[in-house]
Amino acid sequence: LRLLLRLLGDIVVANLQVAALILGPEARLRPRFIWVPLALRNRYAISTFAAMITLTPGTLSADLSPDGRWLLVHALDVEDEQAVVESLKRRYESPLSEILP
Prior knowledge:
Elements: H1 2-23, E1 32-37, H2 43-55, E2 59-64, E3 70-75, H3 81-99
């Protein structure tokens, strides 16, 4: 339940952030593809993690490495790549690992 509430809250906040970005100057956008290392091994957990990223405006799951250890994510505005990776892992992957071990 906590993870679902976190996701819903993040979706609302991300909608506002994306609206501000797309209504502002295009030069402010810093889109980037990022490889996120996965601690998850359960294929359902990985699919859920990828879906949660895609549901959040401004991010999109683009690919999974053949060995299932890396998820390619496109983010609309990336200032610090490592901060994005850490945030995704802390906010979504870690709680998912408790639900779907």
